């Protein structure tokens, strides 16, 4: 060589120094364990170090100036030269493994080629070196055999956490193919560590040379696998790598977990048995059992529930005791469980266990159909499996339910032990029930003894031969005989001789046949006095049915009547028999307590008869007493069972109305009371007219006790006296205004009925498809001589308050049927007349009879009449509503729900009603052509009506846009100002269809 070796140029020096540097460089390269060579731009060898020459078996000088075609087969030599070209032209570094034969035999080398540069920065040729990686390849071969034959998963992990090799067992463990795993990062299958944590742990493992630990791997489908990992550093010349055996320990952990569960349940069973021995109170036992289950049994939540016994409860299960942390106990706060399988809340583990009397296990709780009502709360609380065990004893019927956060907690051994726990609890309940029954029986005996000894009634016990064996203290007090004087005697010693022989024969015949006799009997005291007694005699039989004793109870009617009269005089008015002030104060006090507890109202009405003194002055006090008695009877007739009527003093009466929803409920009662007093009185052969005024105070607004309410009612009464005859006033201004409005409109209503000022107008109902009139709705009006037509919105609510709704409703029904009969006779055939029905009319219950009578009276077939009900009126009493509507349906009357969508209808009940039509409320139709949710609501109502096979009709349609939208949504009929306003009977005839 005539110049220095290629690479970084040597600094300019003297020739001798340059030669010395070149020799030093050659010496260094010859000492390297690597095989080093240098090529020029034409791939001609410029230099070989000694190690490479030895591998080729030639002297280094013999290689200079030659190329790869001189040493290797043409195909291989050309590939080498192509690699050289890429390195030169693309200025890159290439590395690759390849087999190589040396004088020692076959092996593997890692070849690396990189460009070298001249002093002017141009590529001068190729600098190459290769390393013998035969040991590494042989180690890989050995590892490959181990990997592929191992039953455990085996992986080789690179320094960056990449998977370099895996065996088939690893693929099966995590669910990926080998090709998918190679190149993946370890964190993608390691279930607990991210890339940063894995890198940190690899550094530690490299320092320690390996390690052993347990962790979790993640399967392709997402489930986690418990594994035991043994890691060693792999030192084979290929850089820092690790090989690891990965052993699946899921089965072992399951066994260990099952053993832990079993051990915990054993501990739980032992402690529960201790509690059963120690505790005698059922509630204390339930609390202890639940606490033990969570503290020692390994459960996150435990509770005991009992099935409610009342029919109205529908088998509701009530929580009696529970245990768990705050999060898990919160699950029970809104828990609704029943035992009825017809309810979605009755198909879970607890309801089924109680209903069928068997343990019920539910795993995968958060996805099971049976537990669907509770999924959201189960996910929030992390509950994944449960078991409910029926428990019972005596009258108790319930379940013990436990929860775990594992999906599969309840194996065969755990289930067996829990069933033993439930059996022990049931045994304890049965023992408690027996003890309770025994203690109850003992207490009853003690009670009977106490009653026998302390009863105010006389008592006698005789044996089978009717000889006295026991008497009580009251017997001694009533008869005057001591116990010693009568024991062993026959009760005939009390005979008064007031009853003949036949009387006693009949008594004993009845007693023998029926086992009891009751009636009035005259007896004689020891001093000879005769007195009436009310006597009850019973036969007592033994287990064989033979008479063993006679038991008689009697009371002294003379003493009783005297005591009752004294009591009556203390609490009732002597003249009218009404409760007096003392009794009224007690009644109002009780009503106030109830109203406070249930957020209700109590009304106190202070009533004064106007100018009553004139009755006494003109007709005398006897006539005055007659008027007071008649007034008392009238007030009682109005108030009935809904309240209490009291005579306060003189011509003042007090009425108490308890348990009111609102103060407005007093208005119709006050009006009725005034009307009753206003009826003429018959006094001394003459008719006289009286009036009254009423002052009203309401709990809690006007007072919290009887005295305050009476004071304020008296103040309101003074105000009423200013207002004229037959008036009432509330203590509060707002109530007065309402009462005045009630009186004014009430007077208008009564006048309208009396003077026949009521009229019906009819609004057409139109088929949206054909445009034909298919019905008319009858709408009541008052034809007021001064105010003109008054619409129903102004007086219907008042009519419902003062009770006139029944008169108005019957008149509207009769008038609509009378008009439909006229139209039918005139040839108007194919349409119905719709009449609105009030909730008050339905509540009274006689509407079917009224409808049947009205149809018959006008010779009208039921198919020409349609009754409209509101949702709320139907849902007030579903059972009664269903019965009424079935009666209407049997008459052929068509039925519709008015204002649908504004109330609340249970679909489960709605589908039971024999309906024909749903009427969409105008509040949804009004903004139907605007942006909003009304169109969606109408669409939902129409879908419901179609599903139930009902005709749909929209009310309040006022624009073509609304009509078009309704038609597009599939609505059947409409009514509203777009087609016609309500019209008189004569005016509407031009729109009605005639018989063809």
TrEMBL record:
The UniProt record lists the GGDEF domain at 600-733
All residue ranges annotated as the PAS domain in the record = 21-99, 139-209, 444-490
Q: Which residues form the EAL domain?
A: 742-996
Q: Which residues form the PAC domain?
A: 94-145
NCBIfam families given in the database record: GGDEF (TIGR00254), sensory_box (TIGR00229)
The molecule here is called EAL domain-containing protein
What the entry lists under PROSITE patterns is as follows: EAL, GGDEF, PAC, PAS
Q: Mind giving the lineage of the organism this protein is from?
A: Bacteria, Pseudomonadati, Pseudomonadota, Betaproteobacteria, Rhodocyclales
């Amino acid at each position: 060589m005539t110049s220095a070796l290629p690479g970084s140029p040597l600094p300019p020096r003297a020739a001798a120094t340059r030669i010395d540097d070149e020799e030093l460089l050659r010496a260094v390269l010859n000492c390297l364990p690597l095989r080093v060579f240098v090529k020029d731009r034409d791939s001609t060898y410029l230099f070989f170090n000694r190690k490479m020459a030895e591998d080729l078996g030639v002297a280094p000088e013999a290689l200079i100036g030659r190329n790869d075609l001189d040493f290797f087969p043409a195909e291989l030599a050309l590939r080498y030269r192509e690699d050289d070209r890429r390195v030169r032209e693309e200025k890159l570094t290439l590395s690759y493994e390849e087999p190589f034969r040396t004088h020692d035999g076959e092996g593997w080398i890692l070849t690396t080629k990189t460009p070298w540069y001249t002093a002017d920065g141009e590529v001068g040729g190729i600098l190459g070196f290769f390393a013998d990686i035969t040991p590494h390849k042989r180690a890989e071969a050995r590892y490959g055999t181990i990997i592929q034959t191992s039953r455990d998963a085996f992986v080789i992990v690179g320094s960056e956490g990449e998977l370099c090799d895996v065996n088939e067992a690893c693929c099966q463990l995590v669910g990926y193919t080998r090709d998918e795993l190679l190149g993946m990062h370890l964190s993608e299958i390691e279930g607990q560590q991210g890339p940063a944590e894995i890198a940190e742990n690899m550094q530690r493992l490299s320092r320690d040379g390996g390690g052993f630990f347990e962790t979790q791997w993640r399967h392709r489908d997402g489930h986690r696998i418990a594994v035991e990992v043994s890691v060693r550093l792999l030192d084979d010349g290929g850089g820092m790598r690790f090989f690891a055996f990965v052993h699946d320990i899921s089965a072992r952990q399951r066994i260990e977990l099952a053993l832990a569960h079993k051990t915990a349940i054993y501990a739980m069973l032992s402690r529960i048995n201790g509690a059963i021995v120690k505790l005698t109170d059922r509630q204390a036992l339930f609390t202890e059992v639940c606490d033990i289950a969570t503290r020692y049994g390994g459960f996150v939540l435990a509770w005991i529930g009992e099935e409610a016994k009342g029919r109205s409860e529908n088998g509701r299960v009530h929580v009696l005791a529970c245990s768990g942390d705050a999060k898990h106990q919160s699950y029970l706060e809104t828990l609704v469980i029943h035992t009825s399988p017809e309810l979605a809340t009755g198909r879970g583990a607890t309801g089924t266990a109680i209903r069928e009397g068997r343990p019920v296990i539910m795993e995968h709780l958060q996805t099971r159909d049976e537990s669907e009502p509770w999924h959201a709360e189960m996910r929030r609380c992390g509950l994944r499996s449960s078991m409910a065990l029926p428990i019972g004893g005596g009258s108790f019927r319930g379940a013990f339910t436990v929860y775990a956060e594992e999906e599969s907690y309840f194996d065969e051994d755990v289930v067996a032990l829990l069933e033993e726990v439930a059996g022990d609890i049931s045994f304890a309940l049965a023992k408690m029930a027996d003890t309770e029954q025994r203690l109850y029986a003992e207490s009853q005996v003690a009670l009977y003894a106490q009653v026998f000894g302390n009863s105010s009634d006389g008592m006698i016990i005789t044996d089978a031969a009717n000889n006295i064996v026991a008497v009580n203290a009251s017997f001694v007090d009533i008869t005057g005989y001591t116990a010693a004087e009568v024991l062993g005697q026959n009760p005939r010693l009390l005979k008064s001789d007031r009853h003949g022989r036949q009387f006693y024969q009949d008594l004993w015949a009845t007693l023998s046949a029926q086992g009891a006799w009751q009636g009035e009997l005259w007896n004689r005291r020891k001093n000879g006095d005769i007195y009436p007694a009310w006597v009850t005699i019973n036969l007592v039989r033994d287990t064989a049915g033979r008479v063993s004793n006679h038991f008689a109870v009697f009371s002294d009617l003379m003493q009783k009547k005297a005591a009752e009269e004294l009591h009556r005089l203390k609490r009732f008015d002597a003249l009218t028999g009404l409760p007096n002030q003392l009794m009224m104060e007690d009644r109002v006090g009780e009503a106030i307590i109830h109203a406070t507890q249930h957020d209700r109202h109590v009304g106190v009405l202070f009533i004064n008869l106007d100018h009553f003194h004139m009755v006494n002055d003109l007709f005398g006090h006897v006539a005055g007493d007659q008027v007071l008695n008649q007034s008392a009877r009238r007030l009682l007739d109005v108030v009935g069972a809904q309240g209490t009527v009291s005579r306060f003093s003189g011509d003042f009466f007090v009425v108490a109305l308890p348990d009111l929803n609102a103060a407005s409920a007093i208005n119709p009662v006050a009006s009725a009371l005034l009307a009753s007093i206003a009826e003429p009185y018959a006094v001394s052969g003459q008719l006289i007219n009286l009036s009254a005024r009423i002052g009203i105070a309401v709990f809690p607004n006007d007072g919290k006790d009887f005295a305050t309410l009476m004071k304020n009612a008296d103040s309101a009464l003074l105000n009423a006296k200013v207002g004229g005859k037959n008036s009432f006033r509330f203590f509060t201004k707002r109530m007065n205004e309402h009462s005045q409005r009630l009186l004014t409109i009430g007077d208008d209503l009564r006048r309208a009925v009396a003077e026949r000022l009521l009229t019906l107008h009819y609004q057409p109902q139109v088929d949206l498809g054909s445009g034909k009139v298919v019905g008319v709705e009858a709408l009541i009006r008052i034809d007021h001589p001064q105010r003109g037509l008054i619409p129903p919105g102004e007086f219907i609510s008042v009519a419902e308050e003062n009770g006139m709704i029944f008169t108005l409703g019957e008149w509207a029904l009769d008038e609509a049927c009378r008009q439909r009969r006229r139209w039918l006779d005139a040839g108007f055939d194919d349409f119905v007349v719709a009449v609105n029905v009030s909730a008050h009319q339905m509540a009274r219950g006689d509407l079917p009879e009224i409808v049947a009578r009205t149809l018959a009276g006008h010779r009208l077939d039921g198919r020409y009449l349609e009754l409209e009900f509101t949702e709320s009126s139907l849902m007030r009493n579903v059972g009664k509503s269903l019965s009424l509507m079935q009666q209407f349906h049997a008459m052929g009357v068509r039925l519709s729900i008015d204002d649908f969508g504004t109330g609340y209808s249970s679909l489960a009940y709605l589908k039971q009603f024999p309906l024909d039509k749903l009427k969409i409320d105008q509040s949804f139709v009004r903004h139907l052509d605007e942006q909003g949710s009304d169109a969606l609501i109408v669409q939902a109502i129409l879908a419901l009506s179609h599903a139930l096979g009902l005709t749909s009709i929209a009310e309040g349609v006022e624009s073509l846009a609304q009509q078009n939208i309704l038609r597009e949504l599939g609505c059947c009929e409409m009514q509203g100002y777009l087609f016609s306003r309500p019209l008189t009977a004569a005016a509407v005839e031009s729109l009605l269809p005639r018989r063809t």
